[in-house]
């Protein structure tokens, strides 16, 4: 889709909802090459600064297995592959049975 429809500049990309962030950014850049794409999470406070070329891409899915960088092997749980694909909110609410022991 072109950056202008009927002479109007495109200002929203509903077709990228649910896509990986990098893929969404490519589509937005194709439609609006001058776009300043900013990746943020849904719970981040946005800026009130008005920037006409900024497009906020809100990330709400866990895409990579979260890992604890400094955990000695086997000492404590250091990886959570079960949250990959979950929304950030669902992943935050997930109870770890090992923590309940």
TrEMBL record:
It comes from the Eukaryota. The keyword Phosphoprotein does not apply. The gene is ga30718. Belongs to the protease inhibitor I13 (potato type I serine protease inhibitor) family. GO terms for biological process: response to wounding. InterPro entries: Prot_inh_pot1, Prot_inh_pot1_sf. This is Uncharacterized protein. Keywords: Protease inhibitor, Serine protease inhibitor. The keyword Transmembrane helix does not apply. GO terms for molecular function: serine-type endopeptidase inhibitor activity. Pfam families: potato_inhibit. PANTHER family: OS12G0548700 PROTEIN, PROTEIN, PUTATIVE, EXPRESSED-RELATED.
